[in-house]
Amino acid sequence: MVAKLRLVCHSARVRLDIDSLRTLRAIVESGSFTGAAARLHLTQSAVSWKMKRLEERLGHALLVRDGKSIEPTEMGHELLTHAERILTAHDDAVAALRLRELTGTVRLGCNDEPQIDQVADIIRSFREQHPRVGVHTRIGLSSVVGAWLRAGELDLAIVQVLASDLKETDVVLRRDRLGWFASPDLALEEDGSVPLITFGPRGFYRPIAEKLLREAGFEHVVVVECESTSGVIAAVEAGLGVAVLNEAHPVAPGVAVRGEGLGLPCGLPEVKLIARRSQRSRDAAVRALQATLVEGFSVEQASAGDLG
Which of 54, 58, 63, 215 is 20–30 Å from 231 (CA)? Predict the structure, then answer.
């Protein structure tokens, strides 16, 4: 990257991965991290993270800022020469193996906890790698998506579960923290009961919230039921009540986690966002999509952790 590297040691066993070399080439050709991100269908933070890791592995700065553009260093120029040959050979090999590529259709179910554009980008990347595999996506509450999977209507599902509900074959994509969300000027009802906004009777968070309130001696009244995350957030921002939400949700500034301020009970559990395959599915395309989801979520989390 353009910043000074912390790691300057060299290793005789450095490994160069295709994605990092492709990212380096895209940055140099476009002249910016933003341009490279657009070419590679990645976030700018993911591009920066890939370059940071590559430079740390090599122990050399590969890029330097020259005015408004980014140019390769001497080491960057040398690596690009090799990268062109490596990428050409790689792409030729991939094209030659297309005769053996995956085929079929994967039926994917997803709740709306992850940002849908992130999942869409991962699916697009998968389709670019496997153009003969179709992906049919259905979106619903975790409980509904889970029911579709058990009924054999899906091959793969992205859902939230408690740690106690994890199965051996599940793959954890992300760990989510929950919080009580409310408008800053919200007060409890005159009788002390909590006005509760939920995802409806099939919502994953509702039994969690009601159990905590009940054990802490709080009465509650459900004032809004909505099965979409955007609808629940809108009700919270409008000051209609309190909701349990993933702390990573894009709630408007000023609408904070206010459990302590309202005297609400602590103890909301961490939940897992997982990719779960149907027990009936043995298809290679399903496993490949699951692996692509894991990779996509890992890159986003790692880049956010390094750069955030």
Answer: 215
Per-domain residue ranges for the chain? 18-97, 102-173+277-302, 178-269
Q: What does pTM read for this prediction?
A: 0.65
Architecture (CATH level 2) of domain 102-173+277-302: 3-Layer(aba) Sandwich (3.40)
pLDDT tens-place string over residues 7-63: 344 445 677 889 999 999 999 998 899 989 988 888 889 899 999 999 988 888 999
Q: Does residue 240 register a pLDDT over 60?
A: yes
Distances (CA, A) of 11 to 22, 56, 57, 165, 212: 22, 11, 8, 43, 53
Q: What topology is assigned to 18-97 in CATH? A: Arc Repressor Mutant, subunit A (1.10.10)
Q: Which residue has the tokens 């994509």?
A: 173
Q: How far apart are CA 197 and CA 182, in angstroms?
A: 10
Cα maximum dimension of the chain: 73
Task: Give the DSSP letter string of 96-149.
Answer: HGGGG---EEEEEEE-SSS-HHHHHHHHHHHHHH-TTEEEEEEE--HHHHHHHH
Average pLDDT taken over every residue of the chain: 84
Residues 178-269: name the CATH superfamily. Answer: Periplasmic binding protein-like II (3.40.190.10)
CA distances to 133, 193, 204 from 308, in Å: 35, 38, 29
